[in-house]
Write a structure and sequence with these properties.
four-stranded antiparallel sheet; 15 strands
Length: 187
């Protein structure tokens, strides 16, 4: 059996003569010396390209959530001055806009009708029934003081109550578990 220890081969790359047992075959079929060997470049073996995903099967559009009532801190309402119907409301990070309509409610009835709300507790000459007006109130963002200056638009808004006016002003009230939300609540 022949070992080929004296055999010679010509490199397809350089054209030089090399010992036959030092020759290797490249990815492209070229017969070259091991010192001239070049591996296949990785970009020559790209993976398969698939089309961009256009959409999902059975996709449904994002739904619009119904507005919900937000529970307010205890005694969230504050009158600004005697004989004024302007009420400031504290609602942390409310995210509301001027001219939004907001309806105020007291705590939920716990005994007879679990879907019904009580009126907020009246204070400083403002009745709870008036605060809980069923059509709600158009609000202005910010806390208003007795001189008409407005600040703290992130946590306060104010409205003018329909029929009552404050007796002394600067009084907080409304009770616990009052809520602020849309004029109508839907499930």
């Amino acid at each position: 059996m022949a070992t080929g220890k004296y055999a010679k081969a010509i490199s397809d790359r350089s054209g030089f003569e090399f010992p036959y047992n030092e020759m290797v075959k490249e990815w492209n079929g070229a017969f070259v010396h091991k010192s001239e060997f070049e591996a296949k470049h990785p970009q020559l073996e790209l993976g398969t390209h698939t089309a961009d995903q256009e959409g999902l099967m059975n996709a449904r559009p994002d739904r619009v959530e119904n507005s919900v009532a937000v529970i307010l801190k205890p005694n969230p309402f504050e009158t600004i001055a005697a004989s004024s119907g302007i009420i400031n409301v504290f609602e942390k990070s409310h995210g509301r806009d001027t001219d939004d309509t907001v309806r105020f409610r007291g705590p939920i009835w716990t005994s007879s009708d679990s879907d019904a709300y009580q009126n907020p507790v009246g204070f400083d000459g403002i009745t709870g029934a008036n605060l809980a007006d069923s059509s709600g109130y158009s609000i202005t963002v910010g806390k208003r003081d007795s001189s008409g200056d407005i600040d703290n638009t992130d946590d306060y808004y104010h409205f003018t109550v329909n029929t009552n006016t404050a007796t002394s002003g600067g009084v907080s009230g409304g009770g616990n578990n009052c809520s602020a939300g849309p004029a109508t609540l839907e499930a």
